[in-house]
């Protein structure tokens, strides 16, 4: 299982609404994530908007592609895009670039 961590930046004026949206993630979105290989998926949000994502998956690229093929993901990404800074025209899920793991205490 590969551990994946990524960073995004939530707009300062949208932080509270972003939190609220994630308290009520659509059941079909949760199901799609699980079905496409996203395990132990967590999001952590700092007060300045720095978002840290973590997940475990067999194949991150395959999990991303499988989610991208779902209708629910297209709707979710369209709704979430305005919450983020510096996407440069990408959807939020396309802007998730994995960080390089440099240490893990097993």
Brief synopsis:
It comes from Streptomyces violaceusniger (strain Tu 4113). The chain has 106 residues and is an alpha+beta fold. It contains four helices and three strands, in the order E-H-H-E-E-H-H.
Output the keywords:
106 residues; alpha+beta; 3 strands; Rham/fucose_mutarotase; three-stranded antiparallel β-sheet; racemase and epimerase activity, acting on carbohydrates and derivatives; Alpha-Beta Plaits
Strand order of the largest sheet: 1-3-2
Largest sheet: 3 strands, antiparallel
Structural class by SSE content: alpha+beta
- Helix/strand order: EHHEEHH
Radius of gyration, in angstroms, nearest whole number: 14 Å
Number of domains: 1
Binned strand content: 15-25%
Helix content: 25-40%
CATH topology (fold) name: Alpha-Beta Plaits
Low-confidence stretches: none
In DSSP terms (H or I, runs of 4 or more residues), the helix count works out at: 4
- The overall pLDDT average reads 94
Q: Span between N and C termini?
A: 13 Å
CATH secondary-structure class: Alpha Beta
Q: Please tally the β strands and state the result.
A: 3
Query: From the coordinates shown, what is the CATH architecture?
Result: 2-Layer Sandwich
> Which outline best applies?
globular
Give a verbal description of the structure:
- This protein is an alpha+beta fold and 106 residues long.
- It has one domain: 2-Layer Sandwich (Alpha-Beta Plaits).
- The chain has four helices and three strands.
- It has helices at 15-23, 27-35, 60-68, 71-80; strands spanning 2-9, 39-45, 50-57.
- Strands 1-3-2 form a three-stranded antiparallel β-sheet, with no helix packed on it.
- A hairpin with a 4-residue loop joins β2 and β3.
- The chain is globular and about 35 Å long.
- The model has no long low-confidence stretch (mean pLDDT 94).
């Amino acid at each position: 299982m590969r551990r994946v961590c990524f960073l995004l930046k939530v707009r300062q004026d949208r932080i509270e609404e972003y939190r609220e949206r994630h308290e009520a993630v659509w059941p079909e979105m949760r199901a799609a994530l699980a079905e496409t290989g996203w395990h132990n998926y967590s999001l952590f949000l700092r007060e300045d908007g720095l978002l840290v994502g973590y997940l475990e998956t067999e194949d991150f690229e395959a999990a991303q592609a499988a989610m991208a093929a779902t209708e629910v993901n297209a709707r979710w990404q369209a709704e979430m895009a305005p919450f983020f800074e510096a996407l440069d025209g990408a959807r939020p899920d396309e802007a998730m670039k994995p960080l390089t793991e440099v240490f893990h205490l097993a």
